[in-house]
Amino acid sequence: MDLTNIIGSVAGILTTIAFIPQVVKTWQTRSAGDISLLMFLLFSSGVLLWFIYGLMLHAMPIIIANGITLSLSVSILVMKIKDSRAQRRQQRAASLRPL
Description:
Elements: H1 3-17, H2 20-29, H3 37-57, H4 60-96
Helix pairs in contact: 1-4, 2-4, 3-4
């Protein structure tokens, strides 16, 4: 492996690992209320494009890192969407309660 691929691999590992604490925290607390949906939608779209770019270049460090990061990011998105729906249901139920 040449220096370019080593640097790419280390960068991919570090940026991918950076997502794990957020996924774990969101999973444990079952709350994604403080996470920006727009930010994660934009970020996930960008990571998807990086993944496609890596496929087009046949660049394994880009493919692997962005494939894993995309999986983690999408898992946060799914939890965020579920959390948002649950909050909306709670708000509707609270507004229907008699005073």
